[in-house]
Amino acid sequence: MQADAFDTIDSLANDLSGYLGKEQVNHVRRAYYYAEQAHEGQFRRSGEPYVTHPLAVAGILGEMHMDHQSLMAAMLHDVIEDTGISKTAIKSQFGNTVADLVDGVSKLNKITFSSRAEAQAENFQKMAMAMAKDLRVILVKIADRLHNMRTLDVLTPDKRRRISRETLDIYAPIANRLGMNNVRIEFEELGFASLYPMRSRRILAAVKRVRGNRKEIVSQIQTSLEACLEREGLPGRTIGREKHLYSIYEKMRAKRKSFSEIMDVYAFRIIVDKADTCYRVLGAVHSLYKPVPGRFKDYIAIPKANGYQSLHTSLFGMHGVPIEIQIRTEEMEAMANNGIAAHWLYKSSDDQPNNAHVRAREWVNGLLEMQKHAGNSLEFIEHVKIDLFPDEIYVFTPKGAIFELPAGSTAVDFAYAIHTDVGNSCVACRISRRLAPLSEPLQSGQTVEIITAPGTQPNPAWLSFVVTGKARSNIRHYLKNQKHSESVALGRRLLDKALSGFGSQIETVPQESLDNLLAQNNLNGLDQLLEEIGLGNRMSYMVAQKLVSQNKTATVLESTEREQEGYIAIRGSEGMVMNYAKCCHPIPGDPIVGHISSGRGMVIHTIDCNNIADVRDNSEKCVPVRWDPDVVGEFSVELRVELENQRGIIATLATTITGTEANIEKISTLERDARFSIVNLSLNVHNRVHLARVMKRVRLINAVLRVTRVKSRKASKTIKSTIGT
Questions:
Q1: Is 273 a catalytic site residue?
Q2: Which residue in 67, 82, 169, 232 is the catalytic one?
Q3: Does 4 qualify as catalytic in the annotation?
Q4: 3.30.1310.20, 3.40.30.10, 1.10.3210.10, 1.10.1130.10: which CATH number matches 9-195?
């Protein structure tokens, strides 16, 4: 593609008349004259009239044989943003479809954002919403970005770098996702040259030097491949593939390979008439040169996510020279280069959307689902970047359905790819019929079975290993909602307990008092107030005091009596807003106290913990709590075991503890001298009775001298600062 393929509307119109009707070309002309008038007096940084940019963008789309509405939108794409003309005015002139396309490409320039990153994220989110309505929005945007990249030279170095970085991070991967290989390569080459000019020049010089030496070998391999096809009577053309500078750079960086290692591989493409011939050609080249085991990929039977189809194989050529070969049909070649644009460029008479078009639509629908669950635009764009990974794996359901996932995906990613509810209720998995950890990375060709259980929920630990944007956004969304409902429930219990001290409860508080309090604190409703209390951002005692300040009937005596009665029962299943202090490790049976910590909810300490000694009697910071008789769960506790050094003593200790149904979380050994050692253990137990049973069994080991529970460690800086709030 040339930067200035069309200098005037006449030369563009002449070219468009080759595939558009006369009336449609006239619509494009009218849009051009409208844009020319709207941008009157505006100039590009290069000094050219501004309208040359929309004309060039329309020219790029014309080369893709896009329809007349896309070309009109290209002509008008900066009118809303850069002139005083509204979307309504464009709608009245050119109709709803063109106006929606223009609006989808326009930036949100009327809103003030806290940072450039947030502005870019919001703009991309708006464009994703518009893409869901009409895929042509992204093609107009890609053509706009392509012309901007071709004319970067006139901008300041900072702006050049910023635009190039955004292009390499977002637009090149999107072009790849949409199967537009030619556009992707141009984005990468222009972005690389602008972002790393020195590296780009050095790699280019090295490629030119090597190219001369390679010419003879390339020619020999190509001749032998062509002769092989002729012998077998297989029609096809063979072309040598040039390696692009950015892909060379990325391979050197990501795979830690030297330039010579990458350039030693010779790449060819064989293009044939039909899919059946592809497999026959594969057999022919495998008989000519020996294939490299494990390097064959069949993207014809299982196309890539962007609709790309081809056979890939690696061979040991003459004198052991490595050769990479791609085999595909003419139609696959056109699809590989133009992707989604091929829907318009090679549109058949039946007007059925092609493979890339269908897959692009699925991808955009996936974007919409992520957007729904993302907390904000920055989180959304983070998920999108994750989802644009170019490498993929293919795995199967037990019934043989194929799912395509990014490389490194786990069973949890697979579960969310099937359905959000499957992901949320996933508890275990079988990979190729064997039980496997949920965090195990999947490999292509594996069969994955997800085991679900009703009533289960996503584990926050999954966020450390999931790869897909869909899984990440769904887990975060679920946990966010869960934390909200848990903090509201805890806030209700805390406020009810505080109100009981004043002889009242939430249900009996006059609505007027509640409304006044919410209005004074700019809160939207009772739930928001309860969430603030549950998260420790507001003191329940102070809120209760304000709510009953108009009710003079509650006496101090009643208040004191009720406070002594009013304990909050800890059930062990409160979730994320109830935490157990790491300094004293309280377990059921220990006398306890609840410390309200800002942002964390309630932290449970043992009553004699040194770290809350200063605030234990402060009713605003600590609340009386007790263990519920039916408390459930496992609780962490620390033990210190002093023992004699003996062969296998640690194994004996571990076996004894697991025999009491206690779970060892962590074990560390400190050698006191040549004869004695101290072992520190972190265990999970049910309650004090269970702990006593564990300690009793450990004391019975002959080598053990002493077993003690580590009750309270000194507060770290973080604990002190939390308590101080």
A1: no
A2: 82
A3: no
A4: 1.10.3210.10
